[in-house]
Amino acid sequence: MNQMIQYAKAVTVRDKQLKEKKEILEQKKLEEKRKDLQMEVERLKKVKYYEELEREKLTEQRRKASEVIVQIKEREIQRQKAKEEKEKLGQEIIQGIKQLQIEEDQKNLQRKKKQRELNEEIYEANQKAIVSKQEKILKEREEEQKIIEYNKEKARKEAEYQAEQKRIKEEKEKEVARLRSLQEKANDRQVINMT
């Protein structure tokens, strides 16, 4: 009887441990989701920061280009009587525009390069996240398989215990029947001897 009580207590403790383990796993899942969300927010902030930086640079370049053009127009007005100076100034304008275009093209290439690098970082991060999730799923499946094996073993032991109890009971009943039979035979002999 004490063994059964101890066994029941052990099973209860084990079930409680399994429940706590499941709750811990759930908490870990929620924490992983929170971290993933936080990483995504940080990534978006980073992307937005670089985009804003590029916009500011482009705005400044355009402002400077506009200032140059304004200055050139003012000089053209002031020197409109000097043809050679106008031509020279026109060449300077063309060169300035070309240079701005070259710089703009270079900046576009740099921006595209940074975007590619960022995309590669994101891809690598996603691949790592996929591998991590796959490993986590595999681990969870292993834990579930352990629980299944534990339940099977528990059921097997319970069946063995019940079978053993049944065997002991049957043996006791046979022994009682044998003793009763012997007692009846002894009583029969006693009756015969008295007669």
Give me the strand/helix succession.
Answer: HH
Ranges where pLDDT stays below 50 over 5 or more residues in a row are none
Indicate the proportion of strand residues: under 5%
> What is the CA-CA span between the terminal residues?
50 Å
Q: How would you characterize the largest beta sheet?
A: none
Spatial extent as radius of gyration: 45 Å
Please give the domain count.
1
Please identify the structural class as seen in this structure. Answer: mainly alpha
Mean pLDDT: 83
- Tally of helical runs: 2
Number of strands: 0
Shape: rod-shaped
Helix content: over 70%
Describe the secondary-structure layout:
Blueprint (H helix, E strand, L loop, with lengths): L1 H77 L4 H112 L1
Describe the structure.
The chain has 195 residues and is mostly helical. The chain has one domain (32-194). Helix content is 97%, strand content 0%. The protein has two helices and no strands. The protein has helices spanning 2-78, 83-194. The protein is rod-shaped, with a radius of gyration of 45 Å. The model has no long low-confidence stretch (mean pLDDT 83).
Provide tags for this entry.
single chain, 195 residues, mainly alpha
